[in-house]
Amino acid sequence: MVDRGLAESRAAAQRLVMAGRVRVDEEPVTKPSQRVGPGEEIRLEPGPRYVSRGGEKLAHALEAFPIEVEGKICADVGASTGGFTDCLLQHRAARVYALDVGRGLLHWRLREDPRVIVMEGVNARYQPQMPEGIQIATIDAAFISLELLMPVVRGWLVAGGQLVALIKPQFEAGRESVGKQGVVRDPAVHRRVVEKILSAASSTGLTPQGVLRSPLIGPKGNAEFLLWCVMDGPVFPLEEQLLALFAAAAG
Fold first, then answer.
1. Same-domain pairing of 81 and 152
2. Which of 9, 86, 90, 138 suits 56 as a labelling partner, its CA being 20 to 30 A distant?
């Protein structure tokens, strides 16, 4: 694969094989050591656009909302594997600060990208300052409410800074509203959670500009929502968006 220009190194070729993306004469390759004759065709199956499915969620927001990422200084809270970070980079962000309370989670490709500043073992809730002003922040966090993170993130943003946050009802609704296996199924609870976060954002100085349903559900089957805010931005009525959002869910 290296000789044919399909992989940068033997290690990269091995990763492609183990990911199930390599075929020889249309037959899947299961072992990196498989021998291939000079007349046999090696083909790569298309891989995912981003290092994790989170990238598709953020991409959906960037397609729906007029957010210009190119050249911007960004921060990704709850970076984990780096789906949001990867999406920001592919939209030509100048720099991305990738924060996560965990360690060793960020994909190797992103670690090697000079535009990524890795901030591992960092709880964003207790990170009052960043090395420079942030123009676009994203949040994809678990086991913590956005109500606790948004005031901190707001303090990082420059004038006119923007936030895209993934609303996860299972971490916002309260235990009494979360069903078996941590799944929130009631659309009424979804709406209550979204309205609560909209209100919390506004009170923090992050003016909601749009909200939509994530195109992908969470790992356990939870519905998720994407919120776009602008720091001290114009007040934009979202009643029609909410009606359409939850009318579709009810239908």
1. yes
2. 9
